[in-house]
Amino acid sequence: MIKGSNVALTDLSDNVGSVIVSLGWVSPTGEGDADVSVLLLDANGKVRSDSDFYFYNHPVAADGSVQLLGKTPTADGSEDRISFDLTAVPSGIDQIVVAASRYDGARFGELEDVRITLADAAGENLLRFAVDDAESVTAVIFGELYRRGQGWKFRAVGQGYETGLAALATDFGVDIEDDAAAEAEAALDGTEADGQTDAATRAPAGEPTRQAALEAIPAPRQPESEAIEPKKPATRPRTAKKKVTLPKTIKKTLAENDSWKQARLFPVSVLKSDRDREMRATSVLLSVMAQVPEFSRRLTAGFGAPAGRMETFTEVSLPHGDSPRRPDGVIRVERAGKLWTALVETKTNGNALKADQVQAYMDIAARRGYEAVITLTNDVALEGSPLVDVKIDKRRKHKVALWHLSWAEVAHQAQMLIRHEGVGNAAHAWLLQELLHYLQHENSGCHGFQNMGPAWVPVRNGIDDETLCQGDARALEVVENWERLIRQVCLRLGGELGQKVLPVQRAKRGTDPKERRNSLADQLCLDGWLQAELRIDGTPGVLAISADLRTGKLRTSIEIPAPEQGYPLSWAKRLVRRLAEAPADLHVETLVDSETGGPRGTLERLRPEPADLLPKDNGTKIIGFRLSLLKSMGSGRGNAETGFIRSVDDAVHRFYTTVVVHLDTPTTRRTSKEHTTTR
Length: 679
Known about the structure:
Radius of gyration: 26 Å
Largest sheet: 7 strands, antiparallel
Oligomer: single chain
Strand content: 15-25%
Number of strands: 23
């Protein structure tokens, strides 16, 4: 689409009762980002109240009409997705504005490929609009959905605001200045002694507190470690229920000795075969989804499922030709008298999906008017590289979406809720804890991606004896499995930290996933390296991982920029002090603006003499420091103790917990009364 154009959604698809809108961009540095927001407007072009303003602190509408799904990895890095149930939008709403804003003085001109896309309930992309004239603005209206008669239309807007989200929100009637100082004080009162945000400051769905709205407009999410103003009494009573998370420390057990095993809701000792594991895993997962709505919405909202009453079923018999088919499970959601149904096919223990089986379920779903088929395995799906190929009969009016989940993603979502974000009550937290214990048990078969594939050993041997040639299909298989492994590492680390961890895809490597992987495969044949980068919220740089298949070494590293103020010797001393608990074999390299490179050494050698990090030439400018750890990588293709996958997981975990965690967090603008009242 071009700027200013519009189109009726029903002209593009028959399945637009719910849609997924995605906002994306590419950062050349791999570190740029923006926050998404949505405003629901009445016939006068204004919000009815501040509760019609949705953002990261108020992501879900009580009626299910709007849900901010957060960031999803793509070939270019990530994109923000928003689910709209257009059948649930209140009748008093005539227009839905979709926008994004940057912070800390950043402009959209620093990003590339700024765009918005819209997909129907089946996941089929319907339209795309590129915003290409947002050089100097800090907030942009990407597009808007608006009513026309009984249907909805989309307009490509591309309007920018140089003064940020505050100006945009004010234009549409969001009150951000009325009694702002008192409101900011009340917002700051919601910070507990341990640095975590008090859940009591969170409003119930559909009723966001004014404090939350004010927090969102002046600044991005605050790091937990950042200092704030002293607490002051809240000016309004806090009525929201406190969410439940599991305690960080394990309670002292009452067992007499280690041989006493705690009773579990979902036992795994009786599992003897893959079929038993598949049946048990499906039943366990679907039963918990039906009982814990916070968890089920995290898994199904991205698939176009509405927010409503959910029931789940296992071993359902459905007619298909001469003999019935039995999908492993069925998910059914009812909302306003309408049903959304998905068939579920699961695999455990690394077993692969069967194309004919999935094809049969797609055909059954199409005939019966079901909306989706969901596959669930240990594998990780990649963009442009489906796990199974299915044929879609385009003559059928009803479209069925094929979605995939990995067991690692299921475990990640459960861990995020019970360890970091909280759920509605203690029973929900306990159910999720039991689910997580089951998934992580060695006998469940739900361990995520755990095999680099049959090409792993031949490729390593070909690199070692220099017989691997460019264009070898086995190198491409290794690159694809490396990408799957990195995505899983992001899920596991993000679940442990409670922060977003996403793989970085540099724009210079191209946007087409197949071409990018082919290029990386050719590079693997030439130099024998597998490389990846992770962006972790709250860290001063990108965490890089390199696997040298020639030497069998793994390198984890991070580059941190030099401070803007102070003296180089002070920088070096402070860095060494911050790394007091880091491993002695940590490599520290000074990055300079010359081709000769800067000084380097192990932390053990630099601790008594931090000045050794300074270039001998006083005129050489220091631009930053690179910290690196080396370790031997596993040779096996699996997830055993000596396997490659385990060694990558361990290397990333060790580097973050012993090095990155000690570094200064990035400097961000702090929220204050002065800032709040002027926005």
